[in-house]
Specification:
Leucine-rich repeat, LRR (right-handed beta-alpha superhelix); alpha/beta; Leu-rich_rpt_typical-subtyp; 17 helices; Rx_N; single chain
Length: 882
């Protein structure tokens, strides 16, 4: 009987595919029509062998599985056509009612019947095709044959589909009227979806099959939804305010229920009556427990989460009845398993379509033996590809963890296994590519047990590409014996973090493919690595015993090194790193030198980026300078005792484009010859001695300099001086010049290319000069200048498109802005003395006006009633915050 129903359902789906609306939709949207034709061909091919499959499934589990997969594929095709049907309906409604267009744009922001774009439609159709083609191909291997010379045909009953083709439309007028009434109502203003609006409309949508309310601000779902007896898909994801559901037990046809990212803590007990439910998504919900008897949903295929309860009706045994689960499943609250036998009744070993499994113990596990017994019973099917075990409280892992028969596992994550004294034998998992081990507090040694039984024919971890260890406070050594020396032949990335007692990072492996190594928080580690021939990237952080990089590093092709928080590091020898592309050194207080010898460096022909932060003992660069012909970026930060910049920068750094010097208090002079002519961006911050000699920088000779930022100096009173800055400048930021009283007009007048000017935290600045001569200026920001009282009339250039005035508490009025015909965005923040907009009003070009913490001005611009409302009413977007 089940296959007779499936045959009938095939016929319904095939008729829907041939309907005028679906065909016209594909043509009108320029979706590949041949994909639809191929889908029909594949479905007809599969339907011919249904009778034979019905008989053979009794004795063949392979045929039974094939039928289950076919049924799933046909249901997916029907869901796909539902979405197409609604798209077609929306287009027809638009054509029939002109006012619909305006309301649809406002309303569909939260009432979305179908959100898929055309590209997604084609992709989904291709996936459906692949599934069906694969199933049809398997019919030969299964020996399935056609019992009749023709395809069966059944009459279609009204109401089986949400959209049909012919003139005798059943329920269509009522549906259309209800949707139009809802969308065209005055209440549908795009701000909120009222439950009463929805309940009023749902009474008329009696044949609705697909309802997407994702992203709406519903707080409750009206009871009337339970009257949509034909509803098959209900999507409520991203309804962040939705906290409860009504009784849904009458929705016997419901197949898909998506509650992702809602606030629902409990599901209705009536959920057990949704006997056709195949998909239940509760990702990101604060769900406290599963509804009772969820095992009654025997057709369920997708269940992302299962929360184990202590009562029989919510226990892990309920999973045993869900034979068709597939995809991913996260089982949480495993500490609530009362009897290990209950875990066995979940029958995970029999669920061969589960690809991803995650086991989590969320609470205390006081009985390690009980936890181990439970874990033994949770043995999954050998088809699992991704396995995660979190919070396991056993002392050892059961034997199935690491068995070579789990040959399809690609990714394995073990975390918070705080009672385990050794790692499980994982080296014989033939397909394992990603392995993460974290929170094994009691592991002291990683040795031969980790690799499993080694043979000459099989290398341990033969497919592993990424390996990470983290949070193992007692781990002291990593040992390999003779049989494991050839382990990790494909390993590309290795990360070891927060293992403070580890004294040796790597055993004697060859690691022929390793390109990335990260060592972090290993305080006792003095030698981070042996010779690794292909290593390209090295990150070392928090290794306080490390004094220098090992000599083996010269034999490597390292391209990138980052060293951070290594308190004992004294030298990073650039002369040993000829192929280095990028070097970053952060917070190494003992660093004294960048060269292992006194002689000048050889050319660093590959170095593109050099950053040195927080190295107070670094006094100078290597004698003779940095010969780095391709260096484009140099950052020097908080090197408090650095006396000078690298020698001969103009000639030795001919490609330098970006230079940042911050907190280098003792640097006094610009290098002889000045900065390289290629420099495009320059920032000088908190370097009082260097800034004092700014007229010797020679910035006028830098034809490519476009961005300049000067900040945090106590001695500058006037800036910029005449002829200091080049005319090529497009962005100028003046920040934190606490004693600056004047913005020098003469130093700005020739900056005809300047497009951005930012002035901030200049606490002594009282006024601004005229800026109208800056004819390219498009962005002006003035902030945290507490003494500015006014801005000059006609002082702003007409090219300005963005203006921000922020935290100028003494500013009493705004300048005339009417002439700023390009102004698009105007923000004023924290200027409480400003009471009104300029008398002439604001330019018509303005699209966004934001007023924050200006109480009097905000009140005067209040909609309809403010005295300045006529001056701002033409602006599309107005934001006012008292």
């Amino acid at each position: 009987m089940a296959e007779a129903f499936l045959s009938a359902f095939f016929n319904v789906v095939l008729e829907r595919m041939a309907s005028r609306q679906v065909v016209n939709f594909f043509r009108g949207q320029k979706v590949n029509n041949r994909l639809l034709e191929r889908l029909g061909t594949a479905m007809r091919s599969a339907s011919r062998v249904l009778d034979d499959a019905e008989e053979k499934q009794i004795t063949s589990t392979a045929v039974w599985d094939w039928l289950a997969e076919l049924k799933d594929a046909v249901y997916k095709a029907d869901d796909f056509l539902d979405a197409i049907a609604y798209k077609a309906l929306r287009q027809e409604l638009k054509a029939e009612d002109q006012t619909f267009i305006c309301h649809m744009q406002r309303f569909l922001s939260f009432f979305n019947l179908c959100k898929k774009g055309l590209g997604e439609i084609e992709e989904e159709l291709k996936v459906l095709l692949q599934d069906l083609d694969r199933l049809v191909d398997r019919t030969v291997a299964l020996g399935l044959i056609s019992r009749t010379g023709k395809e069966p045909s059944w009459p279609k009953t009204p109401g089986e589909t949400s959209l049909v083709d012919e003139r005798g439309v059943y329920g269509r007028d009522d549906d259309k009227e209800a949707i139009l009434k809802l969308l065209l109502s005055d209440d549908a203003n795009g701000q909120s979806l009222d439950a009463s609006m929805l309940s009023c409309s749902t009474r008329k949508l009696k044949h609705l099959r697909y309802l997407d309310l994702s992203g709406s601000d519903l707080v409750t779902l009206p009871e009337e939804v339970s009257a949509l007896l034909n509803l098959q898909t209900l999507i409520l994801q991203l309804c962040y305010r939705l906290a409860s559901l009504p009784d849904l037990g009458n929705l016997k046809q419901l197949r898909r229920l998506n509650l992702e990212r809602t606030r629902i803590e409990r599901l209705p007990e009536s959920l057990e009556r949704l006997i056709n439910l195949r998909y239940l998504n509760i990702i990101g919900t604060p769900l406290k427990e599963m509804p009772p008897h969820i095992g009654q949903l025997t057709k369920l295929q997708t269940l992302n989460y299962f929360l184990v309860g202590r009562q029989s009706e919510t226990s892990i045994k309920e999973l045993g009845k869900l034979r068709h689960l597939r995809g991913d499943l996260h089982i949480r609250n495993l500490q609530n398993v009362v009897n290990a036998r209950d875990a066995g009744e979940a029958n995970l070993k029999g669920k061969k379509h589960l690809d991803e499994l995650r086991f989590t113990w969320d609470g205390d596990t006081h009985d390690p033996q009980h936890v181990t017994s439970t874990m033994e019973k949770l043995e999954p099917n050998r088809n699992v590809k991704d396995l995660q075990i979190d919070g396991y409280g056993g002392i050892r892992f059961p034997e199935w963890v690491g068995e070579s028969s789990f040959s399809k596992i690609v990714s394995l994550e073990l975390s918070r296994c705080t009672n385990c004294t050794s790692l499980p034998p994982l080296g014989q998992l033939a397909s394992l590519e990603v392995l993460s081990i974290e929170g094994f507090d009691k592991v002291v040694t990683v040795g031969s047990e980790f690799y499993g039984h080694c043979t000459a024919m099989k290398k341990p971890f033969e497919s592993l590409k990424t390996l990470s260890f983290r949070g193992m406070p007692d781990w002291r050594e990593w040992i390999s014996d003779k049989g494991s020396r050839e382990a990790f032949p494909l390993l590309e990335g290795l990360s070891i973090k927060e293992c403070p007692n580890l004294t040796k990072a790597l055993p004697g492996h060859n690691l022929p493919r390793l390109t990335s190594l990260i060592i972090e928080g290993c305080e006792q580690l003095a030698t981070p690595l042996p010779r690794i021939p292909r290593l390209l990237s090295l990150d070392v952080s928090g290794c306080h015993s490390l004094e220098s990089l090992p000599g083996e590093i010269v034999q490597m092709d390292l391209e990138g090194i980052e060293i951070k928080d290594c308190a004992s590091l004294k030298c990073v020898a650039l002369d040993l790193l000829p192929k280095l592309n990028s070097l970053s050194i952060f917070n190494c207080p003992d660093l004294e030198s960048l060269c292992a010898h006194e002689r000048p460096l050889n050319d660093l022909t590959s170095l593109h980026s050099l950053s040195i932060w927080g190295c107070p003992k670094l006094v100078s660069f290597p004698k003779g300078g940095l010969p780095a012909p391709v260096l484009t970026r140099l950052e020097l930060n908080h090197c408090y005792n650095l006396k000078q910049l690298p020698e001969s920068m103009h000639s030795l750094l001919p490609s330098l484009e970006s230079l940042e010097i911050r907190g280098c208090l003792e640097v006094e002079l610009c290098p002889e010859g000045g900065f390289p002519s290629t420099l495009q961006s320059l920032e000088i911050r908190n370097c009082n001695k260097l800034i004092a000699g700014r007229m010797q920088w020679g910035l006028q000779t830098l034809p490519s300099l476009s961005h300049f930022k000067i900040s945090w100096d106590e001695n500058v009173e006037s800036f910029p001086e005449e002829m200091l800055l080049p005319s090529s400048l497009t962005s100028l930021t003046i920040y934190g010049l606490e004693h600056q009283k004047y913005l020098d007009y003469k130093g700005l007048q020739h900056l005809t290319s300047l497009s951005t000017l930012v002035i901030s935290y200049c606490s002594m600045l009282k006024s601004l000069p005229r800026l109208h001569h800056l004819t390219s200026l498009t962005r002006l920001e003035i902030s945290n200048c507490p003494l500015i009282e006014s801005m000059l009339e006609e002082g702003l250039p007409s090219s300005l498109s963005f203006l921000r005035i922020d935290s100028c508490p003494m500013l009493k009025s705004l300048p005339r802005l009417q002439h700023l015909t390009s102004l698009r965005e105007f923000t004023i923040w924290g200027c409480p003395l400003i009471e009104s907009m300029p008398e002439e009003g604001l330019p018509s070009s303005l699209s966004t006006l934001s007023i924050y913490h200006c109480p009097t001005l905000g009140e005067s611009c209040e909609k309809e009633i403010g005295k300045d409302w006529p001056k701002v009413s033409h602006i599309p977007h107005i934001r006012i915050c008292p």
